[in-house]
Amino acid sequence: MKPATLPKQDAVLPPLREDLRLIAGASATDGSPTWVIVDPVRGKYFQIGWAAYQILSRWNDQSAQAVLSQIRAETTCHATRQDIDDLLRFLYGNHLMREPPQGGYRAYVAYVEAARPQWLMWLVHHYLFFQIPLVRPDRFLRATLPFVDWLFSKSIAWIIALIGLAGVYLVSRQWDTFTATVLHFFTPRGLALYALSLAVVKMFHELGHAYTATRYGCRVPTMGIAMVVMVPMLYSDTSDAWKLTSRHQRAAIGAAGMVVECALAALAIFAWNFLDDGVARSLVFIVATTSLMVGAGINLSPFMRFDGYYVLSDLLGIPNLHDRAFAFGRWQLRRLLLGLDMPMPEPVAAAQRRFLVWFAWGVWAYRVTLFLGIALMVYHYFFKLLGLILFAIEIGWFIVLPIVRELKAWWTLRGAIPKQGRAWASVGFLAFLMAVLFIPWSDRISLPAVLESTPHATIYAPVPGRIVELAAKEGRRVEVGDRLVVLESPVLEKDMALTRKRIEVEQLRGQRQFVDRQELAKHQVTLETLKARLSQFEDLLQQQRNLALTTPIAGVVTDRAEALHVGQWINKELPLAYVIDPAGEELHALAPETDVGYLHAGQSARFIPQGPDRPSLEALVVEIRDIDESSFTVPYLASLYGGDVPVREDANRRLKPETSVYRVTLHLVGSSPRWNQAVRGTVLVKGPRISFAQRAWEQGARIFIRESGA
Questions:
Q1: C-alpha closest to that of 554 among 576, 519, 582, 577
Q2: What residue spans define the domains of the chain?
Q3: pLDDT higher than 90, residue 487
């Protein structure tokens, strides 16, 4: 649509739509009256001030000059031609005029068609949130309101509050039991009950909004499902609350859903104390905790347009709180960073100005954190290529694009920026950030590493047992086959005695077969059973022989487990000692996928061991594995054992790295330090100079190629 053509001073003002209504609104925070323009066709409401009301009440069939003359003669309002021009632009922009400025009513249709976004842009705007209206409940709500009106009494509120306090007191006496409530939802019936209970809680939440709005005389045109990050939630349309003149009534409508959920939580907490462990107790536990977390934790937040935002906006008497706060936030930011002495977006008191500024900055910080979290969530929970695209959209649209728009606004204001003082300080700081991001400062690649002797062996007990002989002493020189620890295992001895008895039984049964016809028929079964028992006994004998732990290599005993002594019971997970060959030591490091491309054989490096008492060592890169460590082979660097590389155990108890890492082998330059134990540390490899921005770009490209399967 073309910009509105403003009428001349003596021309008749263009007509308004006949279906519009102008009703009194709530008082502003400064006590001044407000009015609301009601658009019944689109269900929209527009709040205006005193000057706009005086103009609109004298609008029809008059010129702008005549309207201004009447206002000056009949009121104390100081309206100007600029006020009429601004109001006319507002009316045209929100389709409140009978016809657009050019082209008759058909121009509105063309404008709507042109403004309709393409499917891709619609998806970008609406995949996080869109509504599906299901029912028109207004007639039902008005018919059933008398049956629920008693719930709005103060006595009911006090009763529920006392029940909730009693429930909390009873739960506090068995808090450990409450927090350890077993959720009985691991059956189809349990899961169905769980989903049904959450749906019922949300239904009561929305009915709280709807009945409260109906009680104050508002219309509830639709109720349905809203999809928030592809998660279905119920919603009710209570926008008719804008026609209420009381801000507290509007705030009550906004808070009604949270009040209902808190009441349900109070009743559920009380009921939990009197139910036996089972599905019913699990359901009231879920209702109590979910209602409190969602009702108080999420809906109460004013940083997003949930219930808490509208309640705060109504209580403060500041419609469009976010937009108005953002205007003040940008205004203050430009003052601080650029030294721009611009007028405030609107005249407000100093205390309210400070609140709006800090509120805007708090919302921005909250949304950056939230949108980053949502971006990571959609990346991980959608299939990878779609998740990657949605991640980029989330970061680009909701974080990067607003920053770019603000920087463009700064550029358009460059003529008004002072040439000294804060502006230059801000430019210098911005230049410093750009330098940090884009200038390649460091050529050091830091990798977690371990210096260990090769070969080496770790001594474990084959089965749990008790030490009866201990020859593994720290620093002892041993040869292949030397005995280090001798164990005894009562469990193993019991199994051996039981197996001997079973062998004797089978042997006696075989001897009886020559005189017992029935036993003779089982000869083959007895023979096979005897063979199995003998094989089992041989295995037990081998385990008994293995209770004498010997060293498989020649070397030196080191890192013996602390407090080992004869008579101590040990399990098979405890490493009793290490045997290393100090003649050869090798340095191993693990490089992440982002760094492996900058490594090659022959690069110089320095190993910095943990602990201040060991000197750093020069090294050279000799090998970089071509494939990543699908099975972790450097346990010293695993996070489960105090290392820096995140790992997890699979079903077979094998270590699996959480991200791709590549093994790098380095040789020490000069003589080996012969520390006689594995020493963790960090390897600094001298590589090419890479900026943070280049590294981030290359990392993003790798992830995109990997996840897209290219």
A1: 582
A2: 21-116, 121-317, 336-417, 458-570, 579-708
A3: no
